[in-house]
Amino acid sequence: MTPRLAIVLPTLNERDNLAPLLTRIAQAMGGTPWEAIVVDDDSADGTADEARRLARTDPRVRVIQRIGRRGLSSAAIEGICATAAPFVAVMDSDHQHDPALLPAMLTAIEGGECQVAVASRFVAGGSPKGLASARREKGSRLANRLARRLSGVELTDPMSGYFLLEAETARRLAPRLSGVGFKILLDLLASAPDPLKVREFPLRFAARRSGESKLDRAVAFDFLIGLYDKTFGRVVPTRFALFGTVGGLGVIVHLAVLALLYREADTAFIPAQAAATFAAMTFNFWLNNWLTYRDRRLHGAGALLRGWAGFCVACGVGAVANVAVAGLLKENGLHWLLAAGAGIVVGAVWNYALSSRFVWKRG
């Protein structure tokens, strides 16, 4: 039967959680036709292979294995756009989201009670006890307050990762979505030209069944990236803004190393400058790999060494472009500060373009 509801399951190293989760979904959905779309970010534990194994015996299971890209929001968008079902839900694969809520959420959308049904940890009857620590619970509440200001929608849990809506609504908003960050619901609510009518359902947030939480510091930083992207991303692209911020921090590292070697260790200026330059390049490469290009992060000693070497070459070319442009503008009468600033901008853009294309392989 044609599925009435598609359940998008973004995964990263969730192999052991898939089979029992699909059993729970089947029990919850009863006779309502459904399909599960597993969108896997090339998990090292073989999650995609496990999903394919399950699909061979259950045609309601479909698999999208993504190579070379990561991110919960972008995975959810791909899954939403891959179904013909009229309704779509997004939920985690770690059993912290209870599939038993799906029928009631679907009924609310079908009956026109709301445009988005959201499972909330903080509405009456819900519970956030599955969060790993009190600090994470406090951080989640703070993030929710910021998200409400951005989206303009009064919700107790706009940072929820468990929601359901019409697929057509989601596809209509897809071109507006940034796909940045790890909370697709916030992206959807903030991208809608008119506020969407939302109803919340109490969710007792459970403990993770198996595996480790993906909420490392870089993922938490994704939330701030998402806020930036929805407010300033159309003016200065988010990834370029991150790249530039990392470069600014690299200047501080450069000056600190130079001062330490030249002023404190009495090293000659040229060797000290060279050491400071390589220290700053190494710092910039590491931080860009960890944050700016997190979805294409390089792993392993060989890949990191090749990436670092390529980054140094790219920055060397950018430095030449910086000096050449600044010198040309200065010779043509532009004030030296403006000429220097123009050179810095050109060098930064050049470094960003080369690094994106040849280090982190973004076309």
Largest sheet: 7 strands, mixed
> What is the domain tally?
2
Oligomer: single chain
Q: Kindly report the average pLDDT value.
A: 84
In spatial order, strands of the major sheet run 3-2-1-4-6-5-7
Number of strands: 7
Order of helices and strands: EHEHEHEHEHEHHEHHHHH
CATH topology of the largest domain: Spore Coat Polysaccharide Biosynthesis Protein SpsA, Chain A
Structural class: alpha/beta
Q: How would you describe the overall organization of this protein?
A:
By secondary structure, this protein is of the alpha/beta class. It folds into 2 domains: about 210 residues, Spore Coat Polysaccharide Biosynthesis Protein SpsA, Chain A; about 120 residues. It contains 12 helices and 7 strands. Strands 3-2-1-4-6-5-7 form a 7-stranded mixed sheet. The longest helix has about 30 residues. About 0% of the residues have low confidence.
